Each structure stands twice: as C-alpha cells, then as structure tokens.
Amino acid sequence: MIKNYFKIAFRVFKKEKLYSFINVSGLVLGFVCCLMIFLFIKDELSYDDFHKDGDRIYRVAAAYMRQSVWEPYSTNSWPTAEKLKTSFGEIEQLVRIMRMSEIVTHGEKRFDEERMAVADENFFEVFSFPLISGNPGEALKGSNKVVISEATAKKYFGPINAMGKVLDIGDGTLQLRVSGIMEEMPSNSHFHFDFLISGLTARQIAPEAMFDNVGWDSQYVYIKMAEGSKPASMESMFPNFIDDHLAPLTSGNFKLFLQPLSDIHLRSKNGTEIEPNGNINHIYIFSIVAIFILVIASVNYMNLTIARSLRRSKEVGMRKVLGAHKMNLIGQFLSESFIVTLIAALIAFCLTLLLLPVFNQFAGKEITTNTLFNPPILMTIGASIVIIAILSGAYPSFVLSTFKPLSTLKGSKTKERFGPTLRKGLVVLQFVISIGLIASTSIVFDQLDFLKNKELGINKELLVAVPLRTMDRSQLDAFNNDLLTNSSIVRTGASNMKMPGWISNSTVYKAQGVAVDEEARKSMKVIRIDYDFFKTVETEITQGRDFSKEFPSDGNSSIILNESAIDQLGWTDPIGKWVEFDNQRFTVVGIVKDFHFESLHRKIPPTIFIPSSTYLNWAYVKVDAQNLPLTLKHIKSVYSKFVTNREFSYSFVNEDVARQYQTEEKFTEVLTIFTILAIILACLGTFGLVSFSAERKSKEIGIRKVLGASIGNVTFKLIKEFAILLLVASFIAWPLTYFFINDWIKDFTYRTNIKLEVFAMATILALLITMGTTGFRALKAALANPIDSLREE
Hints:
Layout: H1 2-15, H2 17-45, E1 57-66, E2 69-73, E3 76-77, H3 78-87, E4 91-106, E5 109-119, H4 123-126, E6 131-133, E7 145-149, H5 150-157, E8 166-169, E9 174-182, E10 195-198, E11 217-225, H6 231-235, H7 238-245, E12 254-260, H8 264-267, H9 280-309, H10 313-321, H11 326-363, H12 375-400, H13 405-410, H14 419-453, E13 463-467, H15 476-483, E14 489-495, E15 506-507, E16 510-511, H16 516-519, E17 524-529, H17 533-537, E18 541-544, E19 558-562, H18 563-569, E20 578-581, E21 584-592, E22 607-611, E23 618-623, H19 628-642, E24 651-652, H20 653-659, H21 662-696, H22 698-706, H23 711-745, H24 756-783, H25 786-790
Parallel strand pairs: 5-10, 7-9, 17-22, 19-21
Antiparallel strand pairs: 1-2, 1-11, 1-12, 3-11, 4-5, 4-8, 4-11, 6-9, 7-10, 8-9, 13-23, 13-24, 14-23, 15-17, 16-20, 18-21, 19-22, 20-21
C-alpha cells in the first residue's frame, strides 16, 4: 500500500510540474534559511560552554554611579582583586587577566602583538584551555614566563620546539621564556589570547601606582566559586566589603556584581569588554525571523495544496467507488505531503553544506560541517519534516476524504466549506510577516545610519590617531613641532585614552557648595589631555577659557569640566569654583560643550579634563585633505625618529567611530538577507496562487474577453484580491511591528525616531513587489486566446 502511495505521489508531481516546483523550491529556501539561522544561534549560545565547572565560574564586574545611573564596567582594580581573595570563603579560585599589546622579537622576526595578557598562575586551573606542551599547573608560576599559542610558536620558531626559548618584549629590557604551548582558543570563547604572561611579571610591565589605586580598573577578575556557594549570598555582602576595604570608594557610588561565565557573550553590556560581545536580543529576533520564514514556506505549500485539492475530487470519488476507505485517502494525501517535505529537506541539507563556508565568511563564524550532523540538529530537522508535512497535508486530506463519490463522479461542483477563508487568512499572514520584516529592516537601517552620522561634538574628519605608548613623553613637544613642519598638518593634540573608546579612569570627589551626601553617590570620569587637544578636535569652550601655557597654574591646579559635569553638580556659575579629588583641590577654569568621547551606546558622562605632559598615550593629528599619502608618510617619518621600539600604526577617527557599530552593521546585513529571502518566498506563493486562479478561471476569462473585457480589466480582476489582502495585512502588521521594534530600539541611549513613513513605505514596497510578481502571471492569462479555453464547451 505504501509503495502505491509513493507511486501515485510521484505521478502527481510529474503531472503538475509548476506547482511541484513552487512547493519544493519554497520549502527548500525556507529550510536553508532556518538551518543557517539555527546554526548561528547554536554557535552564539555555545560560548564558553567547554570549560569544566563553567557553571561555577563568574566574572566580578563593577559599576559607578553617574548622573543617578549605574554605569557598568567589566574590569576591576588590582587591589580589589587582592582584597576579594582574602575576604570571601566562597571563592575557591580567583584569576586576574590584564590585557596588553607589545612588540615581540625573536632573532630577525619582529611583530606588533595585540592578543596578549598577563594572567595569574592558576589560569589553567580555572579555564579549560589544553596545553600541547608544558605543565598547566606550573606554566605560569614564577616570573618572566609565557605560554604561547600553537600558531604563535610556528610564527616565531617554525618547526623548532619553542619550549624554553626566549622572546624579547618591547625594547628588549623584558625577556620571557616559553613555558607552555597551548591549543588555539576556541572561536566560541569570549576572549582570545596568543600570549599569556605569568602574573608575577606584572610589576615589570605596569606602573607601580596600578597596584595600589582602587580606581585603576585594569583587571578582568574571574572567580570559581566553591561548591554549594550561592552567588546571590556573596553579592549581598559586597556593599560592606566596599565600605570596609575600597576607600575612598563607597557602596553609594560603587558596586560589584557577578556575571555567570555563560552570560558574558550575549548578556553583558558593560564597558571595557575584552572583545565585542553578541546580543541576546539579536538571538530572539533571528529566532522569530526563522519561524517566520518557515511559516511562509509552509503557508505557500498549504495554500497551493488546498487550492489544488478540489481538482482531485473525481479521483477521490473513483477511489471510494473502488473500495478505498477514508483512512486510505488520508494516508495518500499525507504521504504526498511527507514526500515533498522530505525531498525539500534533503536538498536544503545538501545546499546548507555547500553554502556553509560562504555563510561563515559573511557572519564571521567558524561553524564546521560536522555541526550539521549533531543529533540535536538532525532531530530538529526530522521533527520539522513531520510537523510541516502534517500541517500542510492535514486540511486537504481530511476534507477530500469526506467528498461523496456520487456527486463528484456526476461532475457536480464541490463546495468548499472553509477553503477560501483559510487561503485568504494564510495569505494575509504571509503579508503581515513580509511587511513587518520590511519595516523592521528599514528601522534597523535608520538606527545604524543615525549612529554613524550623529553629530559627536567634534570634527572627526581628517583626524589621525597615533599611539604613543612607548614614546618618552618629555619629547612630546619636539614630536609635535616636527610634525607641524609639514604644511598639510593643521594641528596636533594628545590624550591619555583613545578616542573613541571607553574612559576607564574615574574618581569620587568633593565640590564647592555641593552637599556631602549628594557627592557620596556620584563620581566623574577623568581624561588627561595636552594644551591643544580641544583645538585639535574642534570642540567648543562654552564658558571660561581653554588650557594655556600662559597660565602657570594650569599645569598643576586647573581643570575643565564638561556640561554634564555641571548638570550633576547643579552649578549655575562654575568658573572659579573648586573640585577636590585625588587628595588635591583644583579650580575650574572652563566649561567644554558635551562631546562623545565614548560610543553612542552610552550617555555622555560627567567628565573632568586635566592638563598633563605625562600619561599621554595618543596623539591626534589634524591633516589637510590634499597630499594625504605624503602627509601620512611624513607622520611615519617623525614617529620613527621618536619611537624606535614599535612599528608605526595609525587610524582615522571617523573610521574608528564607524567600527564601534560593527555588531549592529553585521546584524543589519544578516537581517536584510533573510528579509529578502522571506519576501522571495512570499512572492513565490502568491505567484503560485495567481497561476492556479488563472488556470481555474480560464473559461471565465475567455467569456469576459468575448464579451468585450479589456486586457487591463481582466488583469486587474485577477490581482485585485491580493491587493486588498495586502492592505488588510498592513493594518495588522503596523502596530505589531512597532511594538516589537520599539522594544529593540529603546536599548540604545541615542536613537532615531520611528516614523510613520517607514510603515507606509513598507506597505507600498510590498504592494509593488506583489503586483510585479502576480501581474506578470495575470497578464499572461489575460493575453491568452479565449478560443483555447472555450473550445471544450
């Protein structure tokens, strides 16, 4: 019997090639999209799941109170970590990681390495990164040791065994002996390093002040909690710990909190992340898109199957006369549905295997083909096949099996009870999804464009950022003077942190005329700059004056505040008032207009600017657009004269600003691709329905043409129903889309407005696409010779 089912099914497919192609190709496209999204989501959810006892590993993060809002950091200070180790019995292990970058040299090989970190000796006891060579328990014990990745070992030492070999760091005053070689850190780790330097070497690398300053947040602190310990119980003790051990910080202006290791990649929105994180909201959105695409593909199949079902009424009548039971007929139609779905799933699986490398490159992933053969994925595919086959075949199989054989064989017209209504409802559902995806993608594009083009309060164009980390800062004036000998260089300035970037230095303070209880719950960020920084970035001094060498006091007791700082202090006449921090009192000499030093993901913080001739790690060079290659060559020449132990590197600030939104840009690109595919699927379905409608109404169209109907009238009648259904769908899609997309966009501190025009344009675009798709088939039907359709009569 089953063999007979399959034989008849393939006979039907061969007879109705167009509809079979539409059904199979629609399901294939739907399955491929869903498999790709599923693989992406699975990879995102797998971050850091390979660590032994990962459920007991937490990151100790921090937050400062600013403008009555807690602002979270991923980093903590060295003394905070020291005090945590001795104050909490719940901590079984504590590991500090301090990021760094340096020139590394071995013989003739010399590279500027970015993926470096200093880590405590128990790093490999907490994190499960296998060593190819070396003892995990001993590799980071003692000073001047380094564990390197397998690829790094080959880069510096080739086929020679790297164990015990020496690497020169920076200018060669620091030498590290290779004590271990580790496997490459997995792509689904939230951090990746090629060099892990032993923790006791830190004092040869970092300034001494770092080891005593509780406000110097340079360490990523991870703890492994003892079995049975409760994170919530430990967190409840943090306020007392802060007040007792971290002065001048207080629990009113500073707090600590624990982040589960498995939550960091998708749920952490802290500043100073080791690497860019994912976003759990993107996972939710892609999950919804995957469901939508599969729904559209299934709706296409169901619609065409339902529409074609009445053409098989005589077949059903004949089968019943010959003795077929109701269950035999249901089995026949469900088996056809199952075969179509199975064929589509197999083709989609093979296509996914072929397209996976392209998808990896596009999505920035390293998903292997073996992942597709994991039992959970295969089970999901199998379940999808069964569910779609049953849903798609259920209605026609149960309805057709109830037809009376006498009526169908006499040629009586079989009346559909719910078919037309169901078909229209499914078409409306398709249009709701399509319009919603088009509108959502447009709003996401608008938000990304807003982030990239919003006024920052500075002139970011033709502004070159150059790192000065190893330069003797006493030569900074000479460096600037040499740069300015080139007429294409307009001005130079410097700061201790890169712009755009996270402002890591913060301070609590006392201020003139501000109540102590108000100050206790607030802090400000601190940026050190040279005298020409504001002029170079072209920001505005709104009150008072800029820093100047003509005022000797500017070198040791003057500060400039931004407008957010004045709002926090509540001052109306700030010039000349004092602010006290770091055991020193400073006088406010100017107010600078708020500008975005950090990304637009965060509100502009209250900020103190201090003039400095030391700790200036970044130079900013304003250049002329003409002769740009020669100007950059001049900057490199001057840099090489003053910095001999590091390769020249630079970036344009406007490009750095754009790079801050790579996560949003990638999300927008992926969402756009899947939206286009969803629209193609919807068009495929409407094309099939119009084709069927034109075929079913061929005699009606012939009579209308004989009676004088124009081609335009006939075409309009065929596509009018779809246009009406699309407009109905619009009134459903608009509020639903607004509700969901508004929930996404409100996560941004600075965001674009959701405009009504976006929804109107989404409907118009969907209408044009639908009319273009259906109009072609309707026009073909209208142009047909009426004699061909009426000759049987």
